[in-house]
């Protein structure tokens, strides 16, 4: 019964994934900022339940180091609210601090199952 309830709940979950390639020249500063400021600021919006930061284990042709940050949220509506209410300001801060030193792309994922 509990497992079934958990599976039903997970089916409603969404992951907002941001993959970033950061230039080695600002890597340490960026990583500290991500862990101590940016991720906590995103979570402070109240629109995400948790965040997981992972290093991408592949060498990039463009150089730099890549990371994936996965923010878990309950539904698409909450994610849209984040895009409209919070994302522009938070993205501007990254651009201000690390201009021309990173490239990011975003992916929306729906959790189908977890085992």
Share of residues in helices? 40-55%
- The CATH class label is Alpha Beta
User: Could you tell me how far the N terminus lies from the C terminus, measured between alpha carbons in angstroms?
Assistant: 15 Å
The beta-strand count equals: 4
Task: Please indicate the count of domains.
Answer: 1
Class by SSE composition? alpha+beta
Mean pLDDT: 91
Described by the principal axes of the CA atoms, the overall outline is: globular
Radius of gyration: 15 Å
Order of helices and strands: HEHEEHHE
Q: Please work out how many helical segments DSSP would assign.
A: 4
CATH topology name: Alpha-Beta Plaits
Report the biggest beta sheet as strand number plus sense, adding barrel if it closes: 4 strands, antiparallel
Low-confidence stretches: none
Q: What would you say the CATH architecture is?
A: 2-Layer Sandwich
């Amino acid at each position: 019964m509990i497992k079934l309830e958990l599976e039903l709940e997970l089916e409603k979950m969404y992951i907002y994934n941001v993959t970033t390639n950061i230039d080695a020249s600002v890597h340490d500063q960026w990583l500290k900022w991500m862990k101590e400021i940016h991720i906590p600021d995103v979570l402070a919006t109240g629109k995400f339940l948790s965040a997981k930061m992972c290093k991408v284990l592949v060498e990039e042709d463009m150089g730099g180091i890549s990371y994936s940050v996965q923010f878990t949220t309950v539904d698409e509506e909450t994610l849209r609210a984040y895009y409209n209410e919070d994302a522009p300001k938070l993205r501007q801060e990254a651009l201000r601090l690390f201009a021309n030193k990173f490239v990011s792309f975003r992916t929306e994922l729906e959790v189908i199952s977890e085992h």
